[in-house]
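Teaching soon. Got one?

===
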Amino acid sequence: MFGRSDMGIKQIIDSTRVPVKIWTDNIEQAALEQAMALANVMPVASHVALMPDVHLGKGMPIGGVLPLRNAVSPNCVGVDIGCGVLAVKTSLKSVERRVLGRIFREIRKRIPVGIRGRRKNGQMAEWSGFDSVPDIPAVKKELKNARSQLGTLGAGNHFIEIQKGDDGHIWWMIHSGSRNPGFRIADFYHKLALQRGIVPEGRKQLAYFDIDSPEGREYFAAMNFCLGFALANRRVMSRDVRDAFALWLDFQVLDEINIHHNYAARYVLANGEEVILHRKGATEATVDTVGIVPGSQGSSSFIVRGRGEPESFCSCSHGAGRRLSRTMAKKLLDVDKCVAAMKRMGLECDKNRFPLDEAMEAYKDIMQVMADQDDLVETVAELRPYKYPAIKG
């Protein structure tokens, strides 16, 4: 059932219809079973690839890469379509703590957070994508919602963090997606796939469309609208962060990276076959592509350059990956100990606002994740949280 490889692949399962190739020795049984189900019941080309941050997801593991023949599955894209990360490198080399505190407070004033976070009418941002909305009822239904949530962070593991790179520069990083509109569109098309798509026996969460069916084409167009919205959402927040910095500091933006890790796209395998590649909690790592691998709260994050490894379908991890579910983190972790650990790293924490389910201890070791994927990416810069912990949703 299990084999080993001399490459970065740590495990290979070959008892399934197509193999499952795994870039970690640390995978929970439930996520492994999900991956084996994918390999057995979905129209998979070549193999299923699991990144080193892999953990249990809805239908498909998060940290999974899935090449499907002529098929697209809403749950294999993910419920937060276009979730991703933006990172900005500035010309700043340091910021006084008192000034940084003011900047954080200003960011909190400017950017709504939480599941219901919305912008007021006078604060709504503009986006050219609203001028070219696809003629799809499920998308048009969410436009009012989208306009009010453009430039909002969301909840859960979404964050805004100020960082100091080993390149000597101050960065900011934003993790967010397509907000409630993306979630509702994902949910609509999963339910539609249950009714009009193809449902593998015993695996309702893996319902999918033929990509050439009317429903498949419609979902693909709706998904791409959400991807554009998610990119714009992060850019609007980044503009607000930039403006908050500019109230007290003179600086230049030197670079910006903005990437997805929940999406599907057409992809050509090494053998020339075109597939619909689903990256759910995984990012593109083609040769010389610059990407982002964020760590958990308090740990390092990485700017990376892809190596173009075909075995991972030119993909890498999207972060550290959960070690504990949110429920188990709240049950097993101690807030005083977690806050003390953050303070030992020089980060000022308020234990009354500390989210245990987002504690560093709830996630895998990002350094091990990076070591496990050194065949997939090389590090361009390592970024550390700078004086304050991240703003969480």
User: Anything to note?
Assistant: The radius of gyration is 20 Å. The chain is about 30% helix and 25% strand. Residues 214-246 form the longest helix (33 residues).
